[in-house]
Amino acid sequence: MSRGPDPGPAPAPDHWWHDRRGRIRAGMALASGLLLSAAFPPVDAAVLALPAMAGILASWRGTSPGRAAAFGFLAGLGFFGVLLSWTWYFGAVAIVPLVAAQAAYWAGAAFLDGLIARAGIRCSWLTAAIWVLFEALRDRWPLGGFAWGEVGGAFHDLGPAHALASWGGVPLISLLLVATAGLLVTGATAVLRRRRRATVLAAAGLAVVVLVTGVAGLTRYEPRPSGRLRVAMLQGNRWDRYLTDEEVDSELLTRSHLALAATLRGPYDLIVFPESALDTDPEEDPALRAELREVGRRHGAAVLVNVRAEDGDREYNMNRLYDPGGKLQGNYAKQHLVPFGEYVPFRALVGWLPQIREHVATDFTPGDRSAVFRVAGHRVGTVICFESAFAPLVRRSVRDGAEVVVVSTNNRSYRRSANSAQHVALSQLRAAETGRPVLQAAISGITAVIDASGRVRSRTRLFHNQVVSTEVQTTTGRTPYVRFGDWVVALSAVALGVAIVAAVRRRMVASGPRRTAEENPS
Hints:
Elements: H1 20-37, H2 49-60, H3 65-83, H4 92-118, H5 124-140, H6 159-192, H7 196-218, E1 224-235, H8 245-249, H9 252-261, E2 270-272, H10 286-299, E3 302-311, E4 314-322, E5 328-333, H11 347-350, H12 354-359, E6 372-375, E7 378-384, H13 391-399, E8 404-409, H14 419-434, E9 438-442, E10 448-450, E11 456-459, E12 466-476, H15 480-484, H16 487-519
Parallel strand pairs: 1-2, 2-3, 7-8, 8-9
Antiparallel strand pairs: 1-12, 3-4, 4-5, 6-7, 9-10, 10-11
Helix pairs in contact: 1-2, 1-3, 2-3, 2-6, 3-4, 4-5, 5-6, 5-16, 6-7, 6-14
């Protein structure tokens, strides 16, 4: 009985580890992700961002969608594994799923880029648009997102990047970085293969990047100065460890910050006690409230404090502002809580973990609105801790009238890691986007004064008790980013939609002759 022709050996599975080129690409992806992490604090070598991004794109360029996803994931593991290494303080149960989840977004971007390229649509600008969309998705979903490690943030210290941020936020910087890296890879490949047209197109694309960056700098919106505020920020936790029960019972942090306040001289408009600086809520502790009232009276200053505020069975991470006479002027409850840090999703499933029982025994309730306080005739916005990583929150505060933004934060849990420096870098980008000075008040450092252009004017050392006194120039007016928001993300979505329609049409056209041949065999 005939078994038909021998079909030959089965095709090898599409796994990168089955061939030498695949292993080389995998190594390139991982190494490029590691190199990109060095463009961020603590190394902070922004010059490495472009070659690193080019290596990441080159690792998956020309491969199948599945392989592209694998290489994107490896690059993400290298990048986020170093960038978020400070989560190791909470153990493997924290760092492993967090890094893997963040890397998965890079894998998704690579897969989609490879899928569209398979349909014959290859464009560095489209790759950049896909990247921006996946960064935007990562910033928002799930559980409110995690806006840490946007690749455009590597340029937080550079003036041209500040100008771009004022126009289109960090997404515009990321778009241009990824597009430039893609154009360099395309151009280098075209030169090696002597493809003149492709070389010219890549050069033209790079010229567009230079032109856009130059025009953004020349036409950057300059906010209008509206006055000056005299501010003192108290950094009063010098203990690089968890406090003992005796120290907590003696209200060590409260006493430390009040001792710093006692060293203040001269008039101030605002005195800031940062996140976790007080052991009790002044609204529930009359003695503490009297001490704060005396601080405000002595310096003619409003006093901004952070408290754990209770309202029935709800608990809030809250900033309270007291006027110079000690009267409560207003409250701001943190809106964007940190999952597994300030509340626990799926507590019934993971509540048994020792880290959860020890550090997140109860859940905070999120606030539902921003707050802008009146201080010495000026409007002061505030966000709490990691909220400064989320551009829409700070943008909303500025749209509500804030002339300066105060970030009240406690990064003590991350000890002497790069977390605090990365946090300041994020606040630089928020200042550049909104054209507002940002005052980062940290209980154990880094406390920083950032001007409305995004430049750091002063910063403290970690775990060093001190007072940061500054006179900050407040500003008004709306940058294009404040006015129009994430228009770069919207345009990227449109570009991807057009590309998907074009890819589907190409597949339909290509499959037409095959169907005709099958239906009408000769």
